[in-house]
Amino acid sequence: MKSIAHWINGKPAEGVSGRHSPVFDPATGIQDKQTPLASVEEVDAAVAAARDAYATWGTLSLAKRSGILFAFRALLDAHRDEIAGLITAEHGKVHSDALGEVARGLEIVDLACGITVQLKGELSTEVASRVDVASIRQPLGVVAGITPFNFPAMVPMWMFPLAIACGNTFVLKPSEKDPSTAVRLAELFAEAGLPDGVLNVVHGDKVAVDRLLEHPDVKAISFVGSTPIARYIHTTASANGKRVQALGGAKNHMLVLPDADLDAAADAAVSAAYGSTGERCMAIAAVVAVGAIGDELVDKIRERAEKIKIGPGNDPASEMGPLITAAHRDKVASYVTGAAAQGSEVVLDGTGHTVEGHENGHWIGLSLLDKVPVTADAYRDEIFGPVLCVLRVDTYDEGVALINSSPFGNGTAIFTRDGGAARRFQLEIEAGMVGVNVPIPVPVGYHSFGGWKDSLFGDHHIYGNDGTHFYTRGKVVTTRWPDPADVPTGVELGFPRNH
Ligand code: NAD
After folding, report:
1. Which of 42, 200, 351, 445 sees the fewest Cβ atoms within 10 Å?
2. What dihedral do alpha carbons 236, 238, 240, 243 form, nearest 10°?
3. Which atom of ligand 1 is nearest to the CA of 227?
4. Centroid of ligand 1 to alpha carbon of 135 (angstroms)
5. Contact, 261 vs 417, CB < 8 A?
6. Burial status of residue 411 (CB atoms within 10 A of its CB: 0-12, 13-18, 19 or more)
7. What is the chain's pLDDT, residue by residue, as a tens digit (499 residues)?
8. Contacts of 130 (CB under 8 A, 6+ apart)
9. Angle at alpha carbon of residue 38, lines to 166 and 188, rounded to 5°
10. What is the rounded (10 degree) CA torsion for 242, 245, 251, 254?
């Protein structure tokens, strides 16, 4: 059984806690690897390595830091296919989808390569006689990232490239379900010239996470995962005096107005609901059909969903892979089997689906539920699987009120040909990311990603300018260089005024 080592101080470190977690190939259901679960002492070793590395990394010139980032970018680019293969082997998503995830992670590395521009400070000259004021931003020290299973490359890359470019050192605790990708990214960064200890990877569970949350040398926590854990991370890390951004779960809605191009809307709904087997925080989980178009839209979604080819992620013919674990597959299935009793019409039932030759894989087919009541569990919970709920409303206002009553506020989309309605929607909807005829509005790297309400705790979104801000703290320097000809002002006990 292959064991995935930690990556501490620039080299692999075998787990010594004696605790492990299984890693499966979701397409076969076979456990072919295991990941060590770090003890408090192992986390402390990673933090100590990061603290020691900070002494030189934090003051290294911007030119040298960005040079290493450019070299990392080139290596990532050259290894896209290999990284996508690692993702597919442990997560299960199809190879093309895994390549897309690597590409979106690379966007943040691109951003980090330009750190010289982003970290330019501000200067005001002559704010008072011979007085200048400079605003600068400095790194925090050791920062940590805790990431979910569903994007084992992209989400860590939302964090560590920018944090490290800003001069911090980093401890990453990736998901224990698909841990290999994070280690490979760290190896490539080391190959690019990153000094030992600047990026460390510790595998683990609550023990490792709790140690990071309380460790006095960890100055900030970035978290991405489910809402209950995000809330816990935010509360605990804040109570321990750390800066924290904690991105949580989602239930993303797509509002379809009667004037929309229904073929385009159905294509978008199927792509966004079932892509990555629904295991995306930006997946469309609920389509809200306005007016009389509901039946036609549901027919068009069903026709398309029935054609999706399910199979192993490493088979180029597959469009949708398996779910991450058998337990998760069973939980997803329970929402479909319980749907009719809670008032939904089951248009497609994907439970019980298997793939020939891979009978023990974590398979489930596509499910489509229509006329779902807002009280149904399938609507209220984040299912995180290929189950699309369709809800019916009579008007735009009713649709907006429905979406805004959701406790989540990650992404949302409107499909319409009416620019005025789209404009109103952008302003009225309570979500952090909005798509107009775009079903998965994940912002590009130079804008920031983040939800509202129970989809994000903390006040910084991730990457973009928010990322640079999160990973640095401000300092304002007020300077006077008197001219030899100046007459001394003498003692003045009044509060300093500018004149
Ligand atoms: P998760 O919350 O179970 O795990 C996330 C991380 O927290 C993992 O590293 C895990 O080891 C750790 N963790 C789990 N339980 C813990 C506990 N009790 N105490 C401390 N740490 C704990 O999430 P997941 O199942 O890996 O990922 C799926 C979830 O992530 C979904 O809810 C999805 O919406 C969300 N997600 C959100 C975004 C976003 O940007 N908002 C992006 C991707 C995924």
Report:
1. 351
2. 130
3. 32
4. 36
5. yes
6. buried
7. 899 999 999 999 999 999 999 999 999 999 999 999 999 999 999 999 999 999 999 999 999 999 999 999 999 999 999 999 999 999 999 999 999 999 999 999 999 999 999 999 999 999 998 999 999 999 999 999 999 999 999 999 999 999 999 999 999 999 999 999 999 999 999 999 999 999 999 999 999 999 999 999 999 999 999 999 999 999 999 999 999 999 999 999 999 999 999 999 999 999 999 999 999 999 999 999 999 999 999 999 999 999 999 999 999 999 999 999 999 999 999 999 999 999 999 999 999 999 999 999 999 999 999 999 999 999 999 999 999 999 999 999 999 999 999 999 999 999 999 999 999 999 999 999 999 999 999 999 999 999 999 999 999 999 999 999 999 999 999 999 988 888 877 898 988 877 6
8. 480, 481, 482, 483, 486
9. 45
10. 160
Find out whether the beta carbon of 252 lies less than 6 Å from any atom of ligand 1. no
Q: Is 173 in the pocket of ligand 1 (CB under 6 A)?
A: yes
Q: Which of 312, 53, 68, 367 is nearest to 197 (CA)?
A: 53
**How many residues are given for the chain?**
499
Domains in the chain with CATH codes: 2-248+455-477 (3.40.605.10), 252-436 (3.40.309.10)
Report the C-alpha gap between 147 and 155 in whole angstroms: 7
Tell me if residue 281 is catalytic. Answer: yes
- The pairs formed by 485-489 with CB atoms below 8 angstroms and a separation of 24 or more are 486/130
Q: Are 3 and 14 in contact (CB under 8 A)?
A: yes
* Ligand 1 pocket residue status of 450, Cβ below 6 Å: no
Query: What is d(CA 431, CA 119) in angstroms, rounded to the nearest whole number?
Result: 29
Neighbours of 59 (CB within 10 A): 10
Counting ligand 1 atoms within 8 A of each CB, the residue from 93, 150, 177 with the most, and so the one to mutate, is 150
Structure tokens at 81: 């296919």
